[in-house]
Design goal:
51% of the residues lie in helices and 15% in strands. By secondary structure, it is an alpha/beta fold. The protein has one domain: Aldolase class I (TIM Barrel, Alpha-Beta Barrel). Strand 2, helix 3 and strand 3 form a beta-alpha-beta unit. The relative contact order is 0.14.
């Protein structure tokens, strides 16, 4: 399993004070030295964390492949085409969201996505589409010409978090807790089944398969059971843990969890 470390949240912390501390390049160097196999960043239209100069510097100094997430905005695509990352991952964007929520709508924006892929391919940049784990979205991704899909695991992560939360709440009766736990466990299984089926279908169509969003030290083991998934992109949970143990140890621990025995 390839571990892509998303260092966007280091830039989020930097932007809290609008100073170059923490330095995003330090995060890059630590990730490269601590077991990451890919660097993932997201150049958003509003530049809320990663800036143009960050993306340029990371591309210049990274010893690892860079997966650059971006929208289908023309200005952004021009920048990505010039930077020539090892891969571009097309993702949806909403200005009001805290982080990317939900997969790319490969149906409503089919022509725009096709145009974006054509532009990136003209610069010899492979393309991945960040999509919900549905067979229809996988089929559309293949038809649009993407080489890879990244399955959105946010729904699974949210349900899993709710399940863990319900187990720690003692203000419910045992009957209410069991009903809630039973339903949440069922939903976790259904969500995992969707991810697994999407991964199998994508692999069958010849697409590479990644997964990401909401994955952390508690739930990542479920992704390891799906052999068709060969790459995980994880950021927030690693950066959050690094506050207490340091970025290098946080990455090393995640790498250990994502190493298939």
């Amino acid at each position: 399993m390839k571990l892509g470390v998303n260092i966007d949240h280091v830039a989020v912390l930097r932007e809290a004070r609008k100073v170059n501390d923490p330095d995003i390049l330090n995060a890059l160097y630590v990730a490269c030295a601590s077991g990451a196999e890919q660097i993932t960043i997201h150049l958003r239209e509003d530049r809320r964390h990663i800036k143009d100069i960050d993306a340029k510097n990371i591309m210049q100094f990274s010893q690892l492949p860079v997966n650059l997430e971006c929208s289908i905005n023309r200005e952004i695509l021009d920048i990505v085409s010039e930077l020539k990352p090892h891969r571009a991952t097309l993702v949806p964007e909403k200005r009001e969201e805290v982080t990317t929520e939900g997969g790319l709508d490969v149906f409503s924006f089919k022509s725009e996505i096709a145009s974006a892929i054509k532009k990136l391919h003209s610069s010899s940049i492979p393309v991945s589409l960040f999509v919900d784990p549905s067979l229809e979205a996988i089929k559309a991704s293949k038809e649009l010409g993407a080489e890879m899909v990244e399955l959105h695991t946010g729904s699974f992560a949210n349900i899993f978090a709710m399940l863990n939360s319900s187990l720690s709440h003692s203000n419910h009766s045992i009957k209410e807790l069991e009903l809630s736990r039973s339903e949440l466990e069922r939903r976790v299984e259904l969500s995992l089944e969707d991810i697994k089926n999407a991964a199998i279908y994508a692999k069958k169509l010849g697409l590479e398969v990644a997964a990401g969003h909401g994955l952390n030290y508690h739930n990542v083991s479920y992704m390891m059971e799906i052999k068709e998934i060969t790459e995980l992109n994880i950021g927030q949970s690693i950066v959050a843990k690094s506050i207490f143990c340091g970025l290098s140890d946080a990455i090393k621990e995640m790498k250990e969890l994502t190493t298939r025995k």
